[in-house]
């Protein structure tokens, strides 16, 4: 199984988030699964790949050429797909992944999460959508999603497509469903 991971590439975040990403990468590899990321080598994105490789896991990165040009690419990936645009990046990650885990992140991470979640709801795919959030970063998002459902902006059943988890083991188990 290939697990697509969405996460921060910010170098200014608390190291606990980088450690979480590393732990998730190790967990994916120890489960015998492969990791798919956005192909970067810094912060959480780099750490999740390093964690997987530390446990002899296979890693695949998908990165736009413009980010390769500024030396952002993780050339230690087993596979590194270089694409033209962010849209192509997301499409390829979606195609080659069997499940998705979203770690703490900013606007880019959220944009990827929302696209994958909506795609699941619209039946463009039937792959698990998991949030791994042991630090409560996404608690306000969780509350917003519930509120949007209460106000009928989110259809019944859509909220339940997201599996909210707080440990690596819970996140990996949620990928198996």
How far apart the termini lie comes to 12 Å
Structural class: alpha/beta
Q: What's the count of strands?
A: 7
Number of helical runs?
Answer: 7
Q: Pick out the low-confidence regions.
A: none
CATH topology-level fold name: Rossmann fold
Mean pLDDT: 96
Would you kindly provide a brief summary of this structure?
One of its GO terms (molecular function) is hydrolase activity, hydrolyzing N-glycosyl compounds. With 177 residues, the chain is of the alpha/beta class.
What does this molecule look like?
By secondary structure, this protein is an alpha/beta fold. It has a single domain (2-175), classed as Rossmann fold. The protein is built from 7 helices and 7 strands. Strands 4-3-2-1-5-6-7 form a 7-stranded parallel beta sheet, sandwiched between helices. Helix 3 (65-69) links the parallel strand 3 (59-64) and strand 4 (79-83). The chain is globular, with a radius of gyration of 15 Å.
